[in-house]
Amino acid sequence: MKAVTLNNITKTYNKGTVLAVDNLSFEVEKGELFGLIGPDGAGKSTIFRLLTTLLLADSGTATVDGLDIVKDFKTIRKKVGYMPGKFSLYQDLTVEENLNFFASIFGTTIHENYELIKDIYVQIEPFKTRRAGKLSGGMKQKLALSCALIHKPSVLFLDEPTTGVDTVSRKEFWQMLKRLKEQGITILVSTPYMDEANLCDRIALMQSGKILSIDTPANITKAYDGKLYAIRSSSMHKLLIELRNYEFTESCFAFGEYLHITFKKDHIDHTNALLSYLKHNGHTNLELKTIEPSIEDCFIQLLKQ
Amino acid sequence: MKQLFIFVRKEFYHVFRDRKTLLMLFGLPIAQIVLFGFALTTEIKNAKIVVADYSKDIVSKQIIDKIDASRYFDIEKSLMSHDQIEAAFKEGKIKMAVIFPENFNKNLLHTNKAQIQVIADASDLNTAVTLTNYISSIIGDYQQQMVKNVVLPYRIVPEIRMLYNPQLKGEHTFIPGMMAMIMMLVCVMMTAISIVKEKELGTMEILLVSPFKPLMVILSKFVPYLIISLVNVTSILLLSWIFLHLPIKGSILLLYAVSLLFIITSLAIGLLISIVSQSQQSAMFGSLMATMLPTLLLSGFMFPIENMPLPLQIISNVVPSKWFYIIVKDIMIKGSGFGAIWKETLILVGMTVFLLIISLKKFKIRLE
């Protein structure tokens, strides 16, 4: 039995005028850490809300833990853990009160499932008498995860859990997810950060309610079509404009301190010609190298197709 | 059951940790009592008047003494010319002038008829009418004393008794009205805001994706405001008893039972508002529109419904506070039992059941 299945799910808002999820089908294995990667408005939150039975699809069917999301919504609500994107806990309750409250809502106690949240909760336990509104972003997120985990869900839905959280906390957070996965919990996580994609077992790259590609991160980068180069010079802005106008350029975009560039297929190696062309145009400190494509490069390529 | 207790406790945390709301919840009844009880009274005490006595005989003296002795009037100056009186009116110093013409007593004895001129400042209509009524009754009183021993051939004397409120105290009408208003405000607004707040915070999503039943969410939201409202009812009754000397003539138990019913009506309205509004502001605005205005204008507490145009009279029937106001007035002031108010109570029960059914049916177990 799959942890999650979607069959031709379509969801629109505003009486059919806004298409959020477009005839989508995919499956998530049990015990998998599955990532939905895509920019804002790709339809990630809608999928989560459909699967957590908060929304009804226009057409199509879906199951969570083998249960139908429409017919068995009451049972699903007992079994899943959900951390909404805009989840902000009760600001005027303390850390402990928040956790206690959510534990009892799910018919359990902190004590009963303490093992499950221990790793996460020990980090915020020193602040347990502090009000949630006074916590830092990273701590809030840990508390929210603890609250979503307290009833030992079989499937955990985390909607953009790392948005608005600092880099260190984000790293810690993904380590926590790894450990939870080891305990056999299926985790669906959505994120707009492409660099987090590599931390998932499998990912679905999404755009405008559609899945562009769904596979392991390694397979997705392997499927990258063509050769990718990184280039930089002392005047990056000029370089970007010139490269975009260069006749053999297929795509060129800024990526950190480099520009990522691909060339049209019929010209296999013209790096030397390009370098001399750029030198002629007055660029200094030129550096050009072949690189392994990242998920983001794949995403951009998929968008163009 | 334990879940419900913990949820209710959480709601109380919200209430007690928000100082401003807390102050509003419990300060409101006190502020209202002070405002309506002392500042905004419709009764007129110690109105400043002048008396011009051109006759200076025994009868006019006695009448002036009687006026002076009443707690309604303060006689400013005893003698003024007509011009002076007019000037005093213009300056707004006096509310009324009472003028005895020359030969007042003589005329009374010889022609059996004498006139007193009463001039009132009608720029404030209500005050003018009330004051002239007071003065007429004082003069009427005196006249009755005078003719006690004389047998007149034809006399019709209206024996007026102001039932239930012989001293014509304003408190009798405003305490029941205020109870309706405060309960409406607290229950409707607080319930609506606290539910919409959960929507805004995103915690409602979690509550929905949990085994906790939506019905229990509603119930947990009701309990704290129900208790707070009962505390408010008690404080209103105590305050009005201690400071305004307003006794409760009927059964206190019945009064509380009806209040409980009305609180539930208000909670149901609050729930209904929370379902249709998406932000705390719109919930607040909706609550004010749905409670304050109808309660002030159409419950009969401020303006008598009998005097309204027919369409408004008909509309007033769907305002729950109108029925509650009638019931509380009957119990508190007339001392009526259940037998006298069962019709109004039944209407209120019907409204409550209707509102509860609608709002429970409309309560969304999903996000849309």
Mean pLDDT of chain B: 86
Quickly give the structural class of chain B: mainly alpha
Q: Fraction of residues of chain B in helices?
A: 55-70%
Q: Could you say which overall geometry of chain A the principal axes of the C-alpha atoms support?
A: globular
Oligomer: heterodimer
From the alpha carbons, calculate the radius of gyration of chain B and give it in angstroms: 28 Å
Please count the beta strands of chain A (DSSP E, at least 2 residues each).
14
- Strands in their spatial order, largest beta sheet of chain B: 2-1-3-4
Element-level helix/strand string of chain B: HHEHEHEHEHHHHHHHHH
How far the N terminus sits from the C terminus of chain A, by CA atoms, comes to: 34 Å
Helices of chain B, by number, come to 14
Largest sheet composition of chain A: 6 strands, mixed
Estimated share of beta-strand residues of chain B = 5-15%
Shape label of chain B: elongated
Terminal residue distance of chain B: 29 Å
Largest interface: A-B, 30 and 23 residues
CATH architecture of the largest domain in chain A: 3-Layer(aba) Sandwich
Our count of domains of chain B comes out at 2
Protein name (chain A): ABC-type multidrug transport system, ATPase component
Organism (chain A): Solitalea koreensis
Family (chain A): Belongs to the ABC transporter superfamily.
InterPro entries (chain A): AAA+_ATPase, ABC_transporter-like_ATP-bd, ABC_transporter-like_CS, ABC_transporter_ATP-binding, P-loop_NTPase
